[in-house]
Design goal:
Shape: globular
Strand order of the largest sheet: 4-3-6-5
Number of domains: 1
Distance between the termini: 33 Å
Bound molecules: fe (ii) ion
Order of helices and strands: HHHHEHEHHHEEHHEHEHH
CATH superfamily: Aromatic amino acid hydroxylase
CATH topology: Phenylalanine Hydroxylase
Radius of gyration: 18 Å
Largest sheet: 4 strands, mixed
CATH class: Mainly Alpha
Helix content: 40-55%
CATH architecture: Orthogonal Bundle
């Protein structure tokens, strides 16, 4: 069932979410008013400087290439400028949103190669942790990967198929697939140790190091059906990280997977425990 902007704004206010949802257009986007003050620019630089010291060593090459291409670390990004670059590379653009938006418009944006990015930034006292995704998570974490054609195609396909799979009762399973690919994943890189991928890892100072370097991290070969069956928790380090062979393998695997069949087989079964998967 689709929810109106007004009703969603009411629910978000009741939950204490920070964004100004009443400013949304019917597709839940807002204008990015580029009116960030010097203190906010300083928080952006602090976050980027600190995290880049880690990503240089631990992030997958494809992500780092994306960062370099977009050049987004000096100041808070202007979404229109970034969209102009992305459009030329992979046909994607970014749109401003006040924060998390409902599934239906989120899937629709992805299906049309628009990535929603939160228009506000965390405060200085929240450098290490914030409950809601903010611009640093959405932008620094997600957007560089959209410069990579195979991943960009996967994200569009995900948006395209998601609504239909949700209708079959597969909402949680599609959520897990997003979680273990776009948010928390590892990926092979020729001649290199495993590298990190995903916005949840890129935007986390401590979990990025844990996922890649800790002997205690549980790393599992990627398999779409297993991923869709594996539970996760949002406020702890992940108890499993799936290892992608490549973006091509992710896109091709997703394109040919019998998602409806997977949902039919497993939707009424309990989720797999990530510790033992
Ligand atoms: Fe995210």
């Amino acid at each position: 069932m689709e929810i109106s902007v007004q009703e969603y704004a009411r629910q978000c206010a009741a939950q204490g979410l920070r964004g100004d949802y009443l400013a949304c257009r019917p597709d839940f986007t807002v204008r990015q008013e580029y009116d960030y003050d010097e203190a906010q620019q300083e928080v952006w630089r602090l976050l980027c400087d600190r995290q880049t010291r880690l990503t240089r060593r631990l992030a997958h090459r494809s992500y780092l290439d994306g960062v370099e291409t977009l050049g987004l670390l000096e100041r808070i990004p202007d979404f229109d400028e970034v969209s102009a670059k992305l459009r030329k590379l992979t046909g994607w653009e970014i749109v401003a949103v006040p924060g998390l938006i409902p599934n239906a418009p989120f899937f629709d944006h992805l299906a049309n190669r628009r990535f929603p990015v939160t228009n506000w930034l965390r405060k200085r006292e929240e450098l290490d942790y914030i409950v809601e995704p903010d611009m640093f998570h959405d932008f620094f974490g997600h957007v560089p990967a959209l410069t990579q054609p195979a991943f960009a195609d996967f994200m569009q396909m995900y948006g395209d198929k998601a609504a239909g799979i949700v209708d079959l009762g597969g909402e949680e399973m599609m959520g897990r697939l997003y979680w273990y690919t776009a948010e928390f994943a590892l990926m092979q890189e020729p001649g290199q140790p495993l590298k990190a991928f995903g916005a949840g890892l890129m935007s986390s100072f401590s979990e990025l190091q844990f996922a890649v370097e800790s002997p205690d991290a549980h790393r599992v070969p990627f398999d779409i059906e297993t991923v869709m069956r594996t539970g996760y928790e949002i406020d702890k380090f992940q108890r499993a990280y799936f290892v992608l062979p490549s973006f091509d393998a992710l896109r091709d695997g997703f394109q040919t997977a019998d998602l409806a069949g997977i949902v039919r087989r497993w939707k009424d079964e309990p989720a797999l425990d990530p510790s033992t998967v």
